[in-house]
Amino acid sequence: MNIENVKKAFGPVEVLKGINLEVNDGEFVVFVGPSGCGKSTLLRVIAGLEDSTSGRVVIDGADVSATPPAKRGIAMVFQTYALYPHLTVKNNMGLGLKQAGTPTPEIERRIGIASSMLSLEPYLERRPAELSGGQRQRVAIGRAVVREPKLFLFDEPLSNLDAALRVNTRLEIAQLHRRLKATMIYVTHDQVEAMTLADKIVVLNAGKIEQIGGPMELYNSPANEFVAGFIGSPK
Ligand code: ADP
Ligand code: MG
Questions:
Q1: Angle, alpha carbons 40-154-194 (nearest 5°)
Q2: In this predicted model, what pLDDT tens digit does every residue of 138-154 receive, in sequence order?
Q3: Would you place residue 4 in the very low, low, confident or very high pLDDT band (cuts 50, 70, 90)?
Q4: Which residues line ligand 1 at a C-beta cut-off of 6 Å?
Q5: In angstroms, what is the span from residue 112 Cα to ligand 2's centroid?
Q6: What distance lies between CA 31 and its chain's CA centroid?
Q7: Whose CA is nearest to atom 22 of ligand 1?
Q8: What is the pTM of this model?
Q9: Ligand 1 centroid vs 92 CA: distance in angstroms?
């Protein structure tokens, strides 16, 4: 996947100021940076949920914004879970597939696999209100998994969880990446999450990339004070 000189303005305010990034298939890429630096906006542009002002996102040779949403092979997981309160866990996970016309036995098969991976089998008939925050986020992740996307986008998926659940859910996401071998782009403002999950970290600041590199590379050789403050070893 290639992000080619992506710029995004809201009115007069330029939020993304020319983002260039290559993401390899199967890579776990973490976008890290302070609140308001443009992480969510960049994720939404990658997903095709938001048009860029200029530049483009190319996946398998095709411009995302020119590909119909159902054919993009992208699934997104949000901080707030975004589950339907009136639907059971099972139906929350299966709804997208049902709407896409996937046959019921195939939906059941995929829910079986995803709920086993995420330890959700005991909760399939419950509704979101009957679940803990961690369980709800696992349902939201499961809903992404059943779609069998090539690219997962996570927008601060652990932010609403308490510390213990954050660690558990983080480990589950890492395990999911190893098992599915899908490409994952993960947004966080937490350096521990970035350091432990990433193959490649992209440090963003005010709509620009400050540095791209592996966790140890950024830790040992931060390009500037900003990166050092976020990731680097104390000087
Ligand atoms: P982050 O996810 O890094 O916290 P965002 O991408 O959400 O940052 O936001 C980056 C900047 O763009 C912020 O200043 C935010 O207020 C602004 N912004 C985001 N979405 C919109 C929008 N739909 N309209 C106007 N401004 C927006
Ligand atoms: Mg955000």
A1: 90
A2: 999 999 999 999 999 99
A3: very high
A4: 10, 15, 33, 35-41
A5: 31
A6: 9
A7: 10
A8: 0.95
A9: 28
